[in-house]
Fold this sequence. Notes:
Layout: H1 11-20, E1 44-48, E2 51-54, E3 59-62, H2 77-87, H3 98-110, E4 116-120, H4 123-138, E5 142-146, E6 159-160, E7 170-171, H5 178-181, E8 184-187, H6 192-202, E9 206-211, H7 227-238, E10 241-246, H8 258-262, E11 268-271, E12 282-286, H9 288-291, H10 310-325, H11 329-349, E13 355-359, E14 362-366, H12 375-378, H13 383-395, E15 398-399, E16 408-409, H14 416-429
Parallel strand pairs: 3-15, 5-8, 5-9, 9-10, 10-11
Antiparallel strand pairs: 1-2, 2-3, 4-12, 6-7, 11-12, 13-14, 14-16
Amino acid sequence: MPARSRLEVPRSEALHAEGRGLMPGGVSSPVRAYKAVGGTPLTIVSGSRARVTDADGHSYVDYVGAYGPLILGHAPLAVVEAIRNAAVRGTAYGAPTEGEIRLARLIASALPGVERVRFVVSGTEAAMTAARLARAATSRERIVAFEGGYHGHADSFLAKAGSGMLTLGIPASPGVTTATAGLTTLLPYNDAARLREFGRTRGREVAAVFVEPVAGNMGCIPPEPGFLEALREETSRWGALLVLDEVITGFRLAWGGWQVRAGIRPDLTLLGKVIGGGLPIAAVAGPAALMDRLAPEGPVYQAGTLSGNPIATAAGTATLEALRGAPPYEKLEARGRALAEGLREAAAGAGVEATVVQVGSLLTVFFCPGPVRDLPSASRSDRARFARFFHAMRERGVLLPPSPMECWFLSTAHGDTEIGETIAAAREAFKV
């Protein structure tokens, strides 16, 4: 670790101060501002395999992983070479490319029922497009989602529950109109009974139900047995579309995604993160009968200047080809399980009440008793305790997502050395 004068301002602090004068909060996405944990955000200058280096030269075992895209770790050679080879030919054309076709072919080959893919730039765009498509296909307006889920920041998905679970949604952010939020209903995640109760009275109003098959934005929370099956059964009964938001889970928990692992066939799938290998890209995917309603085949309008960008599709194709060529999912499951078991033992050894939830290469430490199965139980996690743990881990060379409600992301680059360092750091950090 480089020596520093006591009077010298850390470069990360200086850069953040400058950034705050140029960008709201000094960041381009809110969670990066460390509001949930306090302190000054690190400015990262490089990443290699399972580690990142900040502007002051400090290295960390990284579990942020850009919030999910980097399943192969930072700067994997095959992806870097694909990006370089694409960039020297041009960065964007505003025209079809072979790269789009290759990536779409890989996605369609992995997901049963997918015949068409529409590329966009972000998960928010994908969810917004799917909502518009569902409303056009069903001639209905209501969207159903689940408390604690996240489907981007389009107005339809920034609603919160009203006075009762079966009432209209209300705006969750200034700038979202009451009318828009009122067309969104939020139900409790992992509660099939409440879903059926809603469906008996209002199911025929619903255009689509959106769900993260493994919740990843209130921490890692898997679906309970029968929950996704109930969603598939109920949406079919209502005549509504089931939209699986696999922006996080797609190609991370299985080749294809959780739907392949669980045997659930949605009407539409949202993808992002892993399919871009760290570059901005997302997609809506589904059968031709639905997807061909999108312009130019059909009347449902959607467009994007940088959609299907040749550099992003090259990075995504290289990532998916690496995953298909040497599927890492069993190894990632084993490493995730080893980390989770080590963290549980470390917490118990420090006398700390913690629930560690792990699914494949996703993991969250909740500072509360279990089980954690939905937003209310996840919200019991002690946020102040997490903030102390976060900073104690950072001081010991391990970088976590700066929020108690985010997943940790493992990659194929996290090996026994990194897992061991993390557990050793946690033994001390749990005592803080």
